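Lab notebook, bench 4. The sequencing result for the construct came back, and we need a structural model before the next group meeting so we can plan mutations. Quick request posted to the team channel:

Model the 3D structure of this chain.
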Amino acid sequence: MEFFCHHRDRPDALALRDELLEEHWSYMDGYAAEMIARGPTLTADRELPTGSVHIVDLPDVSAARAFAFDEPGHQAGVYRDVLLRRWRNVLGRTMWQFPGGPTEGDRWLVLGLGRGPAVDLEPPAGPVGPDELIAYGPLSSDDGTRWLGTAALLRAPDPDTARAVLTVDRYAAVEVHPWQFGGRS
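Done. Here's the predicted structure in token form:
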């Protein structure tokens, strides 16, 4: 089962986050084989982290909850909240298989929180085509029966172009965050 996890930092947590960085990386190293994508969300100027995104393939919901809530930053109070949802890897690859590589161009997390019937179950053909998608898939309930939204990591020139990956007016809310490939250098 694949899961999308977004830890969102507390506003005053940068020093604590930095202090725990090696513990965070070591913890994530234990999930290297299960990792589909990972990396921090960033401030608008891309200078400081605002959260962490991890997409992982784990055996079940219990394992996903343990992954999200046993993470050292979460245990120490770095994060204000955690979004954990089942996810489906529509692209069938990891971020390391993205043909655009890890650094060229601006990267974004686009997170649409669902409303009504499911949409965007397949990659878009619009302004941000499949070649710019790093990870893409629908979010669902723990049992996988209810569509709850869509999460995408992608390369785009600006947040408006990134936002266009999702169908207009079909989400209760859409967030667009600067994002970058994560992990050890």
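The CA atoms of residues 91 and 155 lie 15 Å apart.
Will bring this to the meeting.
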